[in-house]
Specification:
Elements (H helix, E strand, L loop, with lengths): L1 H31 L3 E3 L4 E3 L8 H4 L1 H27 L1
Antiparallel strand pairs: 1-2
Helix pairs in contact: 1-3
Keywords: Membrane, Transmembrane, Transmembrane helix
Protein name: Transmembrane protein
Amino acid sequence: MIKLGLLLLVLPLFVLMGVYFWELNDVRACQLDGGHWDYIESVCADAPQPFVSWLQRSPLLVNGGMLLSVVGLVMCMVGLYVQRAK
């Protein structure tokens, strides 16, 4: 239970960071080329675009990842408690 809990605790965070930094790389490349990033369409545009947070664009990914991390934390705590009780 502890191994699965640790996997659920850490893996969603790495996935979220990976997806976030992947998009950040595209945004940064667009800005360095003199463009403006369109967060909704995920394309580089010529005109300024409004900022739309990542939570508003991908609520299932963000909230689901955090929920899996919390489930992993609870599983780790339960696994440590059960081992100590034996």
